[in-house]
Task: structure prediction
Amino acid sequence: MRFNPFIRFFFVVVTFIGCISCVSYPGWATAGDKPHIIYIMTNDLGWKDLGIHGGRAPTPNIDALSDSGVRLEGFYTLPYSSSSRAALLTGRYPYRFGLQTNSILSWSTYGIPEGERLLPQALNLAGYRTAMLGSWLLGHAQRNHLPTQRGFDYFYGSLTPTGDHLKKINTIGLTDWFENEKQITEFGYATDLISEKSAAIIDQHDQTIPLFMMISFPTPGMPLQAPEHLVTKFNQFEDQVTQTYLGMVAQIDAGVGKILSALDKKGIRQNTVIVFHSDSGGSVKRKYLSGDGDSQKTVSDNGPFRSGSGSLYEGGVRVPAIVSWPAKIKPTISTERVHVSDLYTTLLEIAGAPMGKNDQVKPVDGISISPLLFENKLLLSRTLILNVTELGGAILRDNWKLILVSTLPSQRELYDIGRDPSEEINVVNKYPEIADKLTDALLEASWEMVPSLYLKDLSNARDHYTPMIWSENPQRP
Result:
């Protein structure tokens, strides 16, 4: 929904004085038949970092959220942060519009293409007030890349990859913290600032108007860093790096607790859909700040899954996920395979947003998982394209997962993840017919691939080292 300039200016002024939710605008719906939607995403959280999977840091609030809804044990994202956000906000595979390779970096000049319809834009049309808090990572070099230009009525947080969670600078040392389109100075830990602002917005919100709030924590992603009082909570571990990481995870849980408490205090928890998941698997190597400079160490825990963030193995794309709506969803655990793009379609259906050809011009890849959420029904069997790039890709059909490396020497890997979720045994030679069929399907999808905007951006002059491709395991995709 587009506001005329006076109304948008008025909204910004009201936001600035700390009461962004005290005014009603023509066109906004009432929340009577539309739930509020709170979408919480973390950065590079390991599968086994949560209490529900046996994590070392206590996460009672996230565990309780899991107990109140559907825990999705077969939930897939993309290997990279920007790609996962793009899939969520468009309902489409990122290879269709050039965001399939790596994340948008601090010095990148591109963003998510303007021709893509984003979730907040569609929810605006359904009468929702929209807010984005935390890590954007979908473009910053031009004004039309910014979240407030792509459907969000309000933005608070960072635009680029984080270089310091306390100083709020990005990976090239520039201050990166904004309210709407204005750079601001904030003191405190990024996780705390985001959760506190989220709770404040909920507290001030006119509950008769449906609210969509996307909360994207930059933690526990790089750099490995937390205030001292969080680190000392885990002094039973001799390794200070592990103490720091677990402090980061625990503080995310505390932030989720603040958000849930705000919903309870407002009396809207029952009619609020809450989605929680990581944008990709836990990073195999974490950068952390030490007295001796930058160092790396593996501290996240992806449980039984191989590799981590940046990889097409399960550890990179299979993440913990929860969907809760106390008024409508009964608690359960599901092993159905769900893709992050499915949430776009599902949330628009729940919100009653228009999805006709005149509104949703480009076809979506995500399906509605409402039958799973509300009736605990099985989803129809389908093929998931886990990613397609110029250098390879991965595809999942039933229990069969194929990983294809197209760079020389090319290679194929086939896994039966039903029996071998750790992807230890490559059975491509044992089941060549299955491998051939999946290869054909992946190659067919590649014909629809738009050239990578990341690789195109490499041709621009820059002062910073930019890898052509990045992976946790350079010998693998």
